[in-house]
Amino acid sequence: MSQSLSAVYVHLVFSTKDRFPFLHDLDMRQATFAYLSGTSKRLDCPTITVGGMPDHVHILARFGRTISQADWVKEVKRVTNGWLKKQEPQLSKFEWQAGYAAFSVSQSNLTRVRKYINEQATHHCKFGFQDELRTLLSKHQIDFDERYVWD
Fold it and tell me: What tens digit of pLDDT does each residue of 77-124 get?
């Protein structure tokens, strides 16, 4: 095959440093989601949806062919971190957590995962980010050590 083709979808999840609710203002949160989306698109990883809460973000994206997962996440975080710190004085100490979780998503599950991400506010009335991430990690059979997940 002379052409390289790919359709790999990734559900990326990461939080603010120490899960501090930096993104409590809804307008700033929505602007951050839009900025995350634009940054990811520039890295040839167009987003399907971006959502989250004041302390964490979910990104559903079609993963690009020319960048590693680690480089994609690093660059998305780096660029948005710098942008956020310039937006408002209270965000001058903003940081993303060092780690992340990434899950593969099949074409047949894209609608369900998009809905899940878009309904973050609804399901976070029942449980917090840590329980959500534990559930996702278990569902995807990812072993993890609690001592190192919550930086």
Answer: 999 999 999 998 889 999 999 999 999 999 999 999 999 999 988 888
**CA 20/CA 113 separation, integer angstroms:** 25
Correct CATH for 8-140 of 3.40.50.300, 3.20.20.70, 3.30.70.1290, 3.40.50.20: 3.30.70.1290
d(CA 14, CA 100): 5
Q: What 3-state DSSP class applies to 115?
A: helix
Q: In what order do the strands lie in the sheet with 8-15?
A: 47-53, 56-63, 8-15, 101-105
pTM above 0.85, yes or no: yes
With both helix axes pointing from N to C terminus, report the angle between 26-42 and 69-87 in degrees, rounded to the nearest 10.
140
Domain ranges of the chain: 8-140
Grouping H, G, I as helix, E, B as strand and the rest as coil, residue 101 is: strand
**pLDDT exceeding 70 applies to what percent of the chain?**
98
